[in-house]
Write a structure and sequence with these properties.
Blueprint (H helix, E strand, L loop, with lengths): L16 H18 L3 E3 L11 H25 L3 E4 L16 H11 L4 E6 H7 L3 H8 L3 E6 L16 H11 L5 E3 L12 H9 L11
Helix pairs in contact: 1-2, 2-3, 5-6
GO biological process, one term: glyoxylate metabolic process
Pfam family, one: AP_endonuc_2
GO molecular function, one term: hydroxypyruvate isomerase activity
Length: 214
């Protein structure tokens, strides 16, 4: 969408279907060029001046229509579409898709196997908490995980609410084999800020690079 006009994705925004399809086609070309098989299909914001509850039904209908279209296009390219709940308490008060429960209900209505949940644990903790149970409940839908400490949105080992070594071990026990995206703002130098990862590898008996010493 038009970021300067305050748009943040278009998939659930009524009246912007043509622009969504155009943007999707462009995104697919970029994804093919860099070999990225997964695309985040951003829902977008509740229109300015609109009451969230009053437009929720129309926005869901638009979202489902656009997601089905996207699933068909992405299937031709052997790609996965992702939807991400973004908290509306701190990060974006007007964002339409806010909780894993809402996302799961929409994905069920869309009914396409190549659409998955992009679960950002920062947003999930702020909106719902209960991360262990939510990871277990929504694990079959998860296509990508993102992390950041709460509330500062910095490195996982920065001061905050979340015990990431426990969360990583839980993901391993569940059989998660995908990427974990570091969607945080480093407190300082990016490379130095990755010390948490080296420490985690060492605690798990791994060398720097994730390979076992054994």
């Amino acid at each position: 969408g038009d970021r300067e006009a305050g748009e943040m994705g278009l998939a659930a925004v009524p009246g912007r279907q043509a622009a969504f399809r155009q943007g999707l086609a462009t995104a697919v070309q970029y994804a093919k060029a860099v070999g990225c098989p997964r695309l985040h299909l951003m829902a977008g914001r509740v229109p300015l001046g609109a009451d969230r509850a009053a437009v929720a039904g129309e926005m869901e209908t638009t979202f489902i229509e656009n997601l089905r279209y996207a699933a068909g296009l992405l299937a031709q390219e052997d790609m996965i579409g992702l939807v991400e709940p973004i908290n509306n308490r701190i990060t974006d008060p007007r964002y339409y898709l806010n909780t894993p429960h809402q996302a799961a209900a929409i994905l069920e209505k869309v009914g396409r196997p190549n659409l998955k949940l992009q679960l950002d644990l920062f947003h999930c903790q702020i909106m719902d908490g209960n991360l262990s149970r939510n990871l277990e409940t929504y694990f079959p839908l998860i296509g990508h995980i993102q992390i950041a400490q709460v509330p500062g949105r910095h490195e996982p080992d920065s001061p905050g609410e979340l015990n990431f070594p426990y969360i990583f071990e839980l993901l391993e026990s569940l059989g998660y084999a995908g990427y974990v995206g570091c969607e945080y703002a480093p407190k300082g130098d990016t490379v130095e800020g990755l010390g948490w990862l080296r420490s985690y590898w060492e605690s798990r008996g791994l060398q720097h690079g994730g390979t076992s010493k054994a």
